[in-house]
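Database export, one record per block. Field names are fixed; values are copied verbatim from the stored entry.
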Amino acid sequence: MKSVTKILSRVFPMNPNIPKAVLESARERGTAVHEWIESYNKYLVEGGDRPIIPLEYQIYADAYKKWVEEYEVVPLHTELKLSDDGVVGVIDMICKTKEHDVVVVDFKITYSYDLPYVELQTSAYKHLGVAHKIISEDTPQKLLHISKTGYTYVDLNDEYELFKKIKEIDDYIDSRKK
């Protein structure tokens, strides 16, 4: 099994000039906010205690809650880990919104994002959901980019056919290294 992220790293390598401390800080922030979102979604569906997020990340939680309210979000699945055909990935959320009965949403808790990367990544995740018959091929996919300034909710193209080509190249490279 190989992760979607690892496969895409062949085409989108990590920038080696980013200091380790910056990467670690971004990883900690992303993990904390993703975990809070998962807990908050569970709270929305099941009730119970409202989850707490560290104060330094509260601005991200506020942006997420604003998106949930504005788009009338009803979580159906969160942090759904799936695998198929040698690929593993995690769908951040499948939900209902005022615009869609079912939509795949990928979260990015970053200063900026690379749209081609996000489209390829989310397409691969979505098609893991399709393979498991959780969603259909015509399910729309969106990016929820959460930053210190709020959120952006972006339509994403389905680029699964292109992802499959990248996977094929990745498989070829791996097979020739042996």
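Remark 1: The chain has a mean pLDDT of 93.
Remark 2: Residues 2-177 form a domain with the Trna Endonuclease; Chain: A, domain 1 fold (CATH 3.40.1350.10).
End of record.
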